[in-house]
């Protein structure tokens, strides 16, 4: 190892440098992923955001990163609409598949209802619970 270099801890992650570096490397190994974020939100009449979905499309996949609805808006079809809108937008961008992860105390049954299948399970994360990794062909 070169003594001129040192490893230091940062309070704020260097996302631009590290993320940019890995993206550049990935493109060299495969092809340009044409990554694009997407976000749909549910707003009330006062423009308050009471739910939404955040994700990204790349390499013909949709990654559903975050999806949430305030509890008093669940069970009304908004979650399905948000997920469907994300999937429709992803298809327009050329995505053929989608993936996400969720916990047993969140929404695995919701996602199964709309065609997602479990492809991986992480037990005891957090302790006493299960994390599910799910995918769907769009």
Describe what you observe in this structure:
Strand 5 (117-123) and strand 6 (130-137) form a beta hairpin. Helices cover 26% and strands 36% of the residues. The longest helix has 15 residues, at 15-29. By secondary structure, it is an alpha+beta fold. The termini are far apart. The chain has a 6-stranded mixed sheet with strand order 1-2-3-4-6-5. The chain has a single domain (35-137), classed as Aminopeptidase, CATH 3.40.630. It has helices at residues 15-29, 78-92, 108-113, and strands at 36-43, 49-58, 61-69, 97-103, 117-123, 130-137. The model has no long low-confidence stretch (mean pLDDT 96).
Radius of gyration: 18 Å
Strand share of the residues?
35-45%
Under CATH, the topology can be stated as Aminopeptidase
Compressed to H and E, one letter per element, the order equals HEEEHEHEE
Main CATH class? Alpha Beta
Fold topology:
Elements lengths: L14 H15 L6 E8 L5 E10 L2 E9 L8 H15 L4 E7 L4 H6 L3 E7 L6 E8 L1
Parallel strand pairs: 3-4
Antiparallel strand pairs: 1-2, 2-3, 4-6, 5-6
Summary, kept brief:
With 138 residues, the chain is α+β, with helices and mostly antiparallel strands.
